[in-house]
Amino acid sequence: MASIVFLDSPVCSGFSYARDPEGCDVGDYSSSLQVQRFLIKWFTDHPQYLSNPFYIGGDSYAGKVVPLIAQYISEGIEGRQQPVINLKGYLVGNPITDPKFDENFQVPAAHGFGIISDQIYEAAMQHCKGDYVNPVNQMCAEVLQTVNSLISEILDAHILYKKCVFSAPKPIHDAMARKNLLEESVELNEAPARPAIDCLTYGYYLSYFWMNNKMTRDALGIKQGTVSEWKRCKRELPYPYDMPSSIPYHINLTMRGYRALVYSGDHDLQVPQLSTQAWIRSLNFSIVNDWRAWHRFTIAYANNLTFATIKGGGHTAPEYQPEECFAMAQRWLANEPL
């Protein structure tokens, strides 16, 4: 179906590293340019893949920079940069795109999911005048505080799942408990908080021990002395979110003929499918295949843009519904109807 290059980006996340600490100081624009440069070097070293159709993909925040990376690649193609990457398009899932859409549709989505009542939603509409991000008066601020309090009771990445410890880096002070948790080949300076075993995040917790296992690191070819400890979330990275919106890049790429697949797990409240539908509609592309079940649901627009929902999916849809997402990707990459 496809060969996949999985890239730890931005630099200093995952197992990627910089010899100079200042090399970790990147943002949306600079890290996307680094990805484009990396790909040029990678294809130079692996020319046997140059003829393959090439796509850029990512979920969540990667959905914001993926169109920018694709833009840089397309500019390199137009500038006859060698080697020429055979870019065909990109795909983004539950993509962070523009706060005007991403954040503003959380309130109507919360109402649709039954998290807030009709009365609370009506009060929000009355007092906030459609702006649920920047309260324009005291009444708006108060109703939004109520909305946020209710949302905090559930897992916003997937409203049906149990809310658990997120399993971000956190010291475990009990040395004996830590010794029992770790295999001899795993040595962590910081182990994450341990969720209950029936939590989705228990898999995140296990990832620390698997990724820091010597056998895993050796299999991945991690160089000695580069990354001492893998962390799922490196909150200390000095990363400025310096691109306000990726919508201009979506317009530019699709108008140039590149294919685009945008998909949403429909139980996500972080980036609700309502917000994704809204920014897609703001492109004013004509509909070429109207909304239908695929089985899930999809709509096709002019300029080769397809939007699909994944029933039962959360913020990173393939994590929750891998079989459906695999079928979707397989059909789309093969240029078949979903």
TrEMBL record:
This is Carboxypeptidase. Belongs to the peptidase S10 family. Signal peptide: none annotated. Gene3D superfamilies: alpha/beta hydrolase. The lineage of its organism: Eukaryota, Viridiplantae, Streptophyta, Embryophyta, Tracheophyta. One of its GO terms (biological process) is proteolysis. GO terms for molecular function: acyltransferase activity, transferring groups other than amino-acyl groups; serine-type carboxypeptidase activity. PANTHER family: OS02G0687900 PROTEIN, SERINE PROTEASE FAMILY S10 SERINE CARBOXYPEPTIDASE. It holds the Pfam family Peptidase_S10. It comes from the Eukaryota. Keywords: Glycoprotein, Signal, Zymogen.
